[in-house]
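Structure ticket #2291
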Amino acid sequence: GDYALDFAEICKRSEIKPVSLKQRPLTPYIDSVAQGNEVAEGAPVTFVTKDKFEYLKPCIEIENDEEIKSSIKSMFVKGWKVDVPLLNVVSLAAPQSLTTLSLWRCGLDLEALQTIISMNSRLLLKTLNLDGNPDCAGHFHLLLTEECTISSLSLRSNMITCSDVAPFAGALAANKTLTNLSLHNNAIGDEGTAHLAKGLRMNRVLLTLNLSGNKITDVGSKFLSEILTSLTLTHEEVVARRQLISDNKTLLASDEPPTTPGGRTKDRPGSNSRTGSHTALDKKGKGGASGKGAKGKQEKIEKPGTKRRQEI
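Resolution: structure written out below.
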């Protein structure tokens, strides 16, 4: 359906003042090129001018899919307080095509973060931006659940400390979807870096990690450098690895077809195809041998002398 109409209707039923929805603007140069207009040489193409109080008005910017113009793929909220009731409305009205959600400096708290987590379980978000929401600093690990589908997560300027990053690093160790993580401009020190390094020892999915603008010294850098080279597994990691291998073997064994007491598989198509080929070869071999023997007998019977005697 139409997201704008659905959003306005849900706001009305929830007795919430609706927020205006706007199409996310393109840069002037891209917009001009898309319309086939020529950009004058020397003209400014990196910014646009708006009304004096335009940036102070709450709005939600949306971005449509390039192929399916009617579907919304991205949603951006910047610089104004988003309370839980409004976030529930956004979650209810959000289409299944939504893959990117950006809530920059929206004053989110733990309750709002839990709403986003439930929203993610329904929509399967790929990119999530929660920059500038320090009230959630110690709870971001709740995002990395087993059902997490987020591949790119930005947590910049959230005042995340070493104690806050410890549970996040523990959740990161078991995560299997996150490939891009930004922790720029936080309060992570060497102790927090040690927690991250410990979590990344078991993580083999993350490709990009941004830790610029933190309180990391050479000591913390050494923790990270050790996991980028060949590392020696600890006793706990060896036990976890063996358990993982055992679970994989059990899973593979459960997928194999059952066998009879004689060792033959009960999977009829597979067994027929296998034994059938051998049976065909055996019959062919026997048939060839018997044919050869019969031919030899015929040759013996049809000797010239014998044939003359029969004719006489």
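Closing remark: The CA atoms of residues 181 and 209 lie 5 Å apart.
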